[in-house]
Amino acid sequence: MAVLPLSVEKVIEELGKLPGVGPKSAARMAYHFLRSTRKDATRLANVLLEMDSKVISCGKCFNVSDTPTCSICDSPLRDPKTLCVVEDPLDVVAFENAGIYKGVYFVLGGLISPADGIGADELRFKELKARITELLDQDSSLEIIIAVNPSLEGEATASYVKDLVANLPEHDMVTVTRLAMGLPTGADLEYADQLTLKRSFEGRSML
Amino acid sequence: MAVLPLSVEKVIEELGKLPGVGPKSAARMAYHFLRSTRKDATRLANVLLEMDSKVISCGKCFNVSDTPTCSICDSPLRDPKTLCVVEDPLDVVAFENAGIYKGVYFVLGGLISPADGIGADELRFKELKARITELLDQDSSLEIIIAVNPSLEGEATASYVKDLVANLPEHDMVTVTRLAMGLPTGADLEYADQLTLKRSFEGRSML
């Protein structure tokens, strides 16, 4: 005998597909909806449908957008001489929240990961190449900042981008940089892993 | 400048209302939807709307149901001489999954909690009283099993039910029991809290 109505089981199943949500938390969430008097389930349903119908990819940077070009690419205040290459839209959010960057972005849509079967063809390298050419048409110099996670997949992706740029006819107009690796704020040197310590040592700067 | 489209921000806001979901996990979930090619957002939206339109409370036990009386209350195989009083529908799921109980349930909809401003009037005690009378009309004896969490709120609720039964004219036809308290399976006696140890000691049984 099914304990919960089928319609509730279906909600639990869908919620269970979310990252970090197991069957027990999915059940707790479904129950939260059932208990709520403010029709939270209907509200969430409506905003999900609205998002699915409105959100597209920015034609320039492939960030999520509800306009053909996103507000960052459209802004005359952003410097088109620096292009920050990131994995996904949440990385753009992280940069924007830090308020440290005034250039434009390019969202790859993932990192090269042979273990997960994600090769270069699955990512937006063709589009990245086109975007670099387009930016170089407007200006005679470009810095490409590779801002990916310091993981094996990040390393593979970074060197792919480096090679891609090296093979461009305009490669001498482009500088490729990447985010510094080292100790994070508040870290305890004693507990830092060996690679972090190595990178932090290699990247030491003058005081 | 808003970094994410408004329609995405709205989804993050609604997801952030779920139990155990902070702003960062809500953003990750929203991004999961944006990344999914299988229209997961629309699927979740549809099942949420279906749940909100179909699910009602069982008229007898107040468990969630998509029929006026739930499948448990409707079943001729369930014993109406035992009534298990629980806090919420997920407790019914836990009992049913354990497969140890063949009686019927009553879902209170919460526990008495003065700290959260939940008094007896907020819970289904009037309905519980009516249900007890109804069951006693069918049979001359009834065991009420109080199956609530062993917390302050659980204690308060349990003694409220006990008093409620004691004040019934048919109180001598009713036995009120509650779940045993003691060491859980796999527990280490050394690390058990004092109350658990006390309850476990008091409730010791013959070998």
Form type of chain A: globular
Largest inter-chain contact set: A-B, 58 and 57 residues
Strand numbers in spatial order across the main sheet of chain A:
4-3-5-6
Cα-based radius of gyration of chain A, to the nearest Å: 22 Å
Helix content of chain A: 40-55%
User: What oligomeric state is this?
Assistant: homodimer
Q: Please report the distance between the alpha carbons of the first and last residues of chain A.
A: 71 Å
Number of domains of chain A: 2
Low-confidence runs of chain A:
none
List the defining traits of the structure above.
homodimer, about 210 residues, alpha/beta, Helicase, Ruva Protein, domain 3, Dna Topoisomerase Vi A Subunit, Chain: A, domain 2, 2 domains, four-stranded parallel β-sheet, two-stranded antiparallel ribbon, 8 helices, globular
Structure description:
2 copies of one chain form a homodimer. Chain A is of the alpha/beta class and 207 residues long. In chain A, α1 packs across α2 (23-35). In chain A, the strands form 2 sheets. A 4-stranded parallel beta sheet of chain A has the order 4-3-5-6. The longest helix of chain A has 15 residues, at 40-54. Chain A has 8 helices and 6 strands. Chain A starts with 5 loop residues before the first helix and ends in a 5-residue tail after the last helix. The radius of gyration of chain A is 22 Å and the shape is globular. The model of chain A has no long low-confidence stretch (mean pLDDT 90). Chain A has 2 domains: 6-54, RecR Domain 1 (Helicase, Ruva Protein, domain 3); 57-206, Dna Topoisomerase Vi A Subunit, Chain: A, domain 2 (3-Layer(aba) Sandwich). At the A-B interface, α1, α2, α3, β2 and α5 of A face α1, α2, α3, β2 and α5 of B.
